[in-house]
């Protein structure tokens, strides 16, 4: 990964004002990009008078490339499977669960409150409330922190949070003109009124409206933003491909070694049982280099090989107050500690949420990067990850955009996404947050660490970060 650790001072032409200024003060991008943090003595983040909230356990069904084994299912089928997997893993009595909250992004109209439908399908009591949240790629993060609020306030002691996304069957709407006509037909009272409406239909009425992973406020596809961000931070195509290859290689190693224990098997109706993620595909830099630009053509650097792919999947976690968990005989996996949400300009800083959130969270918790043993960052694009790391390593960026006197630095590479990430494991928009938190907890146990930091970007220029603390065994 030689070129990942070194970069030149040349920056591609850009029309973005802030990044033009940034390019004039380009980062020192030597081997210090992934410098090793010096260990420090640590203290617990428990606070007097504040309830300890714990992650008892978490599961996910295999994350699959859209259009594969889950293609004939619906979102609530996947969410139900994750809930059943959680019940089987934890043996928690269904009646003990006081609330269920799920995150999702592209909603199926027939099951708008997918949390409720999945809960009923999984056999939870019809007296167990459930609701659905949506916050783009941090939807299940929002589900978890919503549950955190219920628990911390003392309103409840047992909450299930999760997320789901079904990209194999996304809603495709008629055009607005056709929708308006069809609704008019349902209100028409006479044959003449109906014929009048029908006579106004034109061929263009039949053109469908396809969903797009684009910002409503800017009308820009996220991949375009990633390409511009990579150019602004002088991140080469080779660096992005190298990082993506690292993600796939580490994910394959973790899968082969049986480290991805959050994955539960799912018997797909009418098909075989799915037991593992199917998007992990280590390749070679030569093969990756042959792919053409996906968004800014022909000179863009973001390709299918260094981007996360459209994914179907669902995840679920069991959260409790520490007192309740111990009273029920559970040994929690981790404490869920401080968390923050951030938001920036969705045009020029759409994907920089992790940099902002990490800085804000560490300051809030009174920690530094050296205190963190495990990092789990959402990988939307390889260029997005590397841009965030460069932003974190820039005094100029910290002073001009974060309101800080100096940079926070970058995570040591040996602590960063060691079991792969969204580039390789997949990214069901609404479900990734739970995977990040559970993976952080599992890695803390495996690697003997105390603190894990989870961070993710999201559409709308938003971001989230949370600290996970290992639960003493």
Number of helices: 15
Oligomer: single chain
Work out the number of β strands.
12
Class from secondary-structure proportions: alpha+beta
Task: Choose one word for the global shape.
Answer: globular
Residue fraction in strands: 15-25%
Radius of gyration: 23 Å
Mean pLDDT: 91
Write a concise synopsis of the structure shown.
The protein is built from 15 helices and twelve strands. It has about 475 residues and is an alpha+beta fold.
Which key phrases capture this entry?
473 residues, alpha+beta, ten-stranded mixed sheet, two-stranded antiparallel ribbon, 12 strands
Architecture overview:
This protein has 15 helices and twelve strands. With 473 residues, the chain is α+β, with helices and mostly antiparallel strands. Strands 1, 2, 3, 4, 5, 8, 9, 10, 11 and 12 form a ten-stranded mixed sheet that branches. A two-stranded antiparallel sheet has the order 6-7. Helix 2 crosses helix 3 and helix 7 crosses helix 12. The chain is globular, with a radius of gyration of 23 Å.
């Amino acid at each position: 990964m030689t070129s990942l650790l070194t970069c030149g001072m040349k920056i591609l032409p850009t029309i973005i004002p802030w990044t033009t200024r940034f390019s004039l003060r380009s980062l020192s991008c030597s081997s210090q990009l992934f410098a090793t943090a010096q260990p420090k003595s640590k203290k617990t983040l428990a606070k007097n008078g504040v309830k300890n909230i714990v992650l008892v356990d978490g599961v996910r069904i295999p994350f699959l490339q859209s259009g594969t084994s889950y293609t004939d299912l619906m979102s609530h089928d996947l969410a139900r499977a994750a809930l059943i997997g959680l019940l089987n893993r934890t043996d928690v009595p269904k009646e003990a669960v006081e609330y269920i909250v799920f995150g999702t992004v592209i909603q199926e109209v027939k099951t708008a409150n997918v949390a409720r439908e999945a809960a009923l399908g999984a056999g939870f009591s019809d007296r167990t409330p459930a609701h659905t949240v949506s916050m783009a790629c941090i939807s299940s993060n929002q589900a978890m922190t919503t549950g955190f609020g219920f628990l911390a306030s003392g309103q409840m002691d047992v909450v299930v949070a999760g997320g789901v996304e079904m990209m194999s069957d996304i809603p495709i709407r008629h055009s607005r003109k056709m929708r308006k006509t069809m609704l008019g037909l349902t209100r028409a009272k006479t044959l003449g009124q109906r014929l009048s409406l029908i006579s106004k239909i034109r061929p263009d009425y039949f053109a469908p409206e396809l969903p797009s992973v684009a910002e409503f406020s800017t009308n820009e596809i996220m991949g375009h933003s990633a390409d511009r961000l990579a150019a602004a931070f002088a991140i080469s195509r080779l660096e992005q491909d190298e990082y993506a290859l690292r993600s796939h290689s580490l994910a394959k190693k973790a899968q082969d070694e049986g480290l991805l224990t959050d994955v539960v098997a799912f018997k797909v109706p009418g098909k075989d049982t799915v037991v593992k993620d199917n998007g992990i595909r280590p390749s070679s830099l030569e093969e990756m280099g042959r792919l053409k630009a996906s968004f800014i053509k022909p000179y863009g650097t973001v390709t299918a090989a260094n981007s996360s792919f459209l994914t179907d999947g669902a995840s679920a976690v069991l959260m409790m107050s520490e007192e309740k968990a111990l009273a029920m005989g559970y040994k929690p996996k981790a404490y869920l500690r401080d968390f923050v949400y951030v938001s920036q300009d969705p045009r020029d800083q759409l994907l920089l949420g992790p940099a902002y959130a990490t800085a804000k969270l560490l300051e809030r918790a009174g920690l530094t990067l050296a205190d963190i043993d495990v990092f789990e960052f959402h990988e939307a694009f390889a260029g997005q990850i590397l841009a965030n790391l460069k932003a974190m390593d820039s005094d100029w960026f910290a002073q001009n955009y974060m309101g800080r006197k100096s940079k926070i630095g970058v995570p040591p590479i040996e602590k960063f996404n060691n079991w792969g990430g969204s580039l390789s494991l997949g990214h069901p928009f609404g479900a990734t947050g739970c995977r990040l938190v559970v993976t952080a907890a599992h890695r803390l146990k495996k690697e003997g660490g105390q603190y894990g930091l989870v961070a993710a970007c999201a559409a709308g220029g938003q971001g989230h970060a949370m600290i996970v603390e290992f639960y003493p065994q």
